Give the backbone structure.
Amino acid sequence: MTEVRAAPGIDQHAAGGADATGDTALHPTLMEDMLLARRLSERLWNLQRQGQIATIPPLTGQEAAVVGVVRALDLEHDWLAPYYREQVGMAALGDEFLEQIVMYWRGHPDGGRVPAGVRCLPPQISLGSQVPHAAGLAWGLKLRGEPGVACTFIGDGATSEGDFYEGLNLAGVQEVPLVVAVLNNGWAISTPTSRQTAAATLAAKSDAAGVASMQVDGNDVLAVVEATRFARAHAVSGSGPVLIELLTYRMGAHTNSDDPTRYVPEADLAAWRERDPINRLRAHLTEGGYWDDAQHAALVDAVEARIERIVRAALAHPVRPDAAFDHVMATEAPRLTRQRDELAARIDQGEHETEPGVSWRP
């Protein structure tokens, strides 16, 4: 597996036991999370084609870059500020979280509500805008003297957005406990990274903000865990934020509306398939005597059963016509109440139909 080298200014020893290669107790969990992310992406893709899901951005090929980061965090104290691709790789947040992500891509109003106790913001579609959000979260943790870091994910294309630079600059000036994970998957829809920036690396973009950075093989889940542990230890120690550039590849479409065969060179895709993160972890564990075919087959079956439960539960949620008014404010304002009542009156008059099988009254 890949050796991790921390950037200057990051104390590799501060993380304490950060060698993920030797953390054998974590290995089956990493494998399960990656298998679940792969199969859930594929399942949601099929559901979209069947008309049961509105949109889906697959994580295929990038599972290690997300799973490794999330599993290296302290989820009791750390906050996540995601964009829209990585949620299927966040199995560590629980099945209820994954269920609501399925509902989100279905278009269900309740899909944007994060389960109680989960320190994660809802999906963010506007590119780069989650970086200032995460910087604000991290600043809040620092001001209140609370333990933990804020961690945000962005894609390579989002590093060209103003919000990225503004958020990173604020985080650097205030020395907040922030980790920015950049998923450099080679493409911003159909724009290759080579046309996205003239910078030598995306990690180098942190230099202007005085922020430490690391560049890591994002298809090596153990390297990602180790790097994130280093970065988190640096950030939580009061030394300031860290940007991690995770080198990976998008082995599928940007979303269901995209056709990557029109622009992705087949030779490049074939080369990256040889670096499939799931196959790499499986080979590494098998070589070390920690894994075998029977264990893998049993885990695949368990993941399939888990996904089936998640998807069935998500699709079983009916859509109440007034659900869009929920969770807008902590205490409902009179204006929202009037709008809710107006909708109820229109339904009573037959102006709007409810979902088949749903009877509703406020």
